Amino acid sequence: MSAITDEFHRAAGSVADDDDQRAFMRKALGGYEHTRAGTEARFTSWQAARDAAAALKWDALENLHALIQQFVDKLEKRGVKVCWAEDAVQARSYILEVVRAHQARSIIKSKCMTSEEIHLNELLEHEGFNVIESDLGEYIVQLRKEAPYHFVFPSMHLRRGQIDDLFVEKHGYVSNEDPEALTMEARRVLRRKYLEADIGFTGANFGIAETGMISITENEGNARLTTALPKVHIALMGIEKIIPTLDDLALLLPMLATAGTGQQLTCYNSQYSGPRSGDEPDGPEEFHLVLLDNHRTRLLADPEQRDALRCIRCGACLNVCPIFKNIGGHSYGTTYQGPIGAVITPHLRGLQDWKHLSHASSLCGACTETCPVRIDLHHHLLRNRRNAAKAAPTMFERVVYGAFAGVMRRPWLYRTLTKGSRFLNWLGKPVAGTVLDPVRAWRRTRTLPDPAKQSFKDYWKQHRKAGDAVRASAPTVPTVPPAPPAAGAQS
Amino acid sequence: MRISLFIPCFVDQMSPRTGVAVVEVLERLGHEVLYPEGQTCCGQPAFNSGFCDQARCVAEHFLDTFADAEHVVVPSGSCAAMVKVFYPELFQGTKRAAEAKALGERTWEFSQFLVEKLGVGDVGASFAGKVTFHDGCHGLRELGVHAAPRTLLRHVRGLELVEMGEARTCCGFGGTFAVKFPEISTAMAQVKCNSIIDCGAHTVVSNDPSCLMQIRGYFDKHGNTLPCLHLAEVLART
User: Fold this and answer.
1) Which of A111, A207, B70, B231 has its CA 20 to 30 A from that of A147?
2) What are phi and psi of A108, to 5 degrees?
């Protein structure tokens, strides 16, 4: 097992063992599901909207090369400097160059998961720049020196008291757990930072090819301040965020809001098309757009899984995922947590290192059922498992599944071995639960029934031989006493 | 109607009574039940672990065994989904692709077969008590089985059906997942078992024997004797 897999087991196991934390998350996400169901119901047909959104994003991916060029041409005509970054290294060095060129001291950021993907904050801080996250949740995890817990709700794992403690410690805040007071405290600190910042940094939820605009969705107004006040705006966007037309937002914005938070529409949806032009009173003087590939084209080239690029990062698949609810976001060790993270991280960061995430799923399909752009999420986990096993099967698994196939296609061998299994089970009784027990992982937390004295195959032989007479003595349910006949029962 | 049964390998070994109950219900309804004796497993364990060649090898044996079957009935949503949903993918581009697809179309999860194919709601069963139903995820989401088992249970005399909270949430079994990630799997079982207890049911019923193994295993370990029954076992009671 690799160190990454080991760490996953350790972290996931620790949260799975923490009843309070799990109950806290289930309660929070239960509230989300309730709100979201109400908002979905306001659509004439949520399912038809999903179809339309999936088709729209699919079209965009099919024509990505043309749309992205159209998008860039429009932006460049308006004076935007565009960087085509093949990978994280190129994106980081371009951004660093811009920051250095402006001799910036302070950079204010609005929420941008893509910047987490390229580890931008670490780089800028390492180079001596002051970086401030302006989204409240992001600001909180930044103060705690943590990664976002959930790519839409970065600090959902924290209770009010913990945030209060944090502000007391970091700001000298006078303790008050009232949410409004906590928010006002963050606002008080952050307002100054916008004014001080030399550079405003944002992500982009959508890139509109038709008009050459990026669209940013937010609830706090922090992205608007981030883009309006500093003299330089740098936006970082994954290439899969391109959509064809401005009208497409009429569908995608309400869907993003509904699936993401259960809102009908997020509070602020702003479109930006470039630096301030001559007659405009405000806005940045310089506008840079970094287009990031970072292995997205590798996923685009995969005919089975390219639909994963339709993702609008709403986070709905995390919110309904029983794995996420029981292991929390940090256990994944990835930028993108939950089902979508388990699907795309192997493509972005290497299959063999991240295949364990595809195995850490019961394949229940709640994610696929909820995805607003109909990504075939849980089946992609199966495909990752297949690709990983094909490329580098472990010796153990090769032996196990080789033997499995060898037995299961030979009914006589199956019969012989299953008869033997009763004896082996009897023989294994003394080691049950010990390190010698092959099913110890199961038995530690659950009991395992003994093989039945009579298998179905044996029953069937008797059933056929003796006909109905034998059926009366067929094995019956041992755990339950026969139900008393109910009043008015018919049989 | 001539109905061929597929009794999944672990049902054959661990809970044959489920298979017996299926036979009883179908024969009571006047159907001829066949059991091709060469059957073993659908191949899902290998498929879900990514070992498709080995899974296909087992699946080919399944195709051979049920080649002549008019209808195949499976008392497990998961194994039925393997045949109906995943065989077409497994055999894609092979000589047996059409055969696999056709067999998938003739294969049914038990409750869906009764309600949708046979048009039966009332099988003449009696069962006294408050029951909650747990949907196996493969049945629920791969096959869309939701109403059928509830229709059948509502017609059982003396049975009161109650829904548990978070009814659509997975029990945490998930095949090899349950032993590869036992901590996560058990945490999920705990959530499920608490939902079952909280709804006040005296018995939990499911259409998936693997979920029942997980739920029963967790309850049993914690000293709770709440009965965990397959749908067929309830429907077999008269």
Assistant:
1) A207
2) -105, 135
pLDDT in tens, A309-330: 999 999 999 999 999 999 999 9
Rounded to 5 degrees, φ, ψ at A475 are -55, 135
Classify A128 as helix, strand or coil.
coil
Option in B54, B140, B178 nearest A402 (CB): B54
Give the sign of the dihedral formed by CA A220, CA A222, CA A225, CA A228.
negative
Q: Which amino acid is at B214?
A: Q
Angstrom distances, CA of residue A32 to CA of A25, A259, A318, A331, B170: 11, 9, 11, 22, 18
Domain layout of chain A by residue ranges: 43-294, 403-471
Name which of A446, A450, A473 to mutate to probe chain B: the one with the most chain B Cβ atoms within 10 A of its Cβ.
Answer: A446
Q: How much of chain A is in helix, strand and coil states, percent to nearest 5?
A: 55, 10, 35
Contact yes or no for A340/A323 (Cβ under 8 A) = no
Hey, of B40, B92, B131, which one would you mutate to test binding to chain A, going by the most A CBs within 10 A of its CB?
B40
Class of domain A43-294: alpha beta
Tokens of B205: 């019923």
Task: Tell me the average confidence (pLDDT) per consecutive run of 10 residues in chain B, 238 residues long.
Answer: 95 94 97 95 96 97 97 98 97 97 98 97 97 98 98 98 97 95 97 97 97 97 97 97
* Domain range annotation of chain B: 2-116, 121-235
Q: What is the pTM of this model?
A: 0.93
List all residues 6 or more positions away from A377 whose beta carbon is below 8 Å from its beta carbon: A308, A317, A339, A340, A343, A367, A368, A371
Kindly report the backbone phi and psi dihedral angles of residue B160, in degrees, each rounded to the nearest multiple of 5, phi listed first: -110, 120
One-letter amino acid at A50 equals R
Nearest CB partner across the interface for B188, out of A362, A397, A447:
A362
Alpha-carbon gap: B11 to the closest alpha carbon of chain A (Å):
8
Distant-in-sequence, close-in-space partners of A257: CB < 8 Å, separation ≥ 6: A39, A217, A263, A264, A265, A266
- Alpha-carbon distance B236 to nearest alpha carbon in chain A (angstroms): 10
SS3 B144: coil
Handedness of CA A255, A257, A260, A261 (dihedral sign): negative
The CB density around residue A28, as the number of other CB atoms within 10 Å, is 15
Name the 3-class secondary structure at A234: strand
CA separation, residue B46 to residues A242, A311, A394, B41 (Å): 39, 30, 13, 11
The H or E element that residue A291 is part of is strand A286-292
B156's tokens: 């059982």
Q: What is the fold, at CATH topology level, of the domain defined by B121-235?
A: Rossmann fold (3.40.50)
Closest to A107 measured CA to CA, from A235, A223, A193: A193
